[in-house]
Amino acid sequence: MVDRGDEGSLADLPWASVFDPAVNVRALSSVQARGFKAATEVVNRFVHLADSDVFAQRSQESTASSDNLGDSDTAQPTSAPDIERFFGLWQGMVGQLAQTLVGAASAPRTGTGSAMFDFVNANATGQVELTTTEPGAVSTEVWLHNGGSTDLGKVRLRCSDLLSHDGALIGSALVRFEPDTVPMVARSSRGVTVEVDVADDVRPGCYRGTLLADGHAEVWLPVVLLVEPSMP
Length: 232
Prior knowledge:
By secondary structure, this protein is an alpha+beta fold. The protein has 2 helices and 12 strands; from the N terminus they run H-H-E-E-E-E-E-E-E-E-E-E-E-E. Helix 1 (21-66) runs antiparallel to helix 2.
């Protein structure tokens, strides 16, 4: 287990800003501003070249009229901007901007792992997933997030019994957490290891339960332990 500090806060780490919703919003706004600025420059360039082409074309028509050429077949067209090329450039710019915004909006808020408790917004996302093919301990990680300015104190996780569809049971006493209690100071995120002991007599199957946070009744996560048959 990596030492995460006495306070349990990631605020002093250089990459801790990815856990701050305010920082993520500012980063997204910056991406949007740069993207729209670049797109505007492309449009302005296209309009400028189009206007230049119109001017050159009118000058050519005026010269041809004054010289009494009268033969449209001998008139050489003015070099015009490649409209299709600039239109394609515009489409590419818009597509790149959209992908950038999607990437920025979906940037991870709580580090690695798909299971997360957000205590400030009273929200939980993902599920705790574990898979094993043999007896012994199996573990994964869940993230606890406090993006507010208030110290939430110490948080303890609790897990129910894990039950399969045929009534097979893995008791809650076999589920452990490291650390056991987590100090959730202001603007901090902590990863907690969830470990389950799978006994020798546990039958293969899918075992399901619920993960709760003591003192935060509004958040919960499903727990799924898949015990697969061992390879012969």
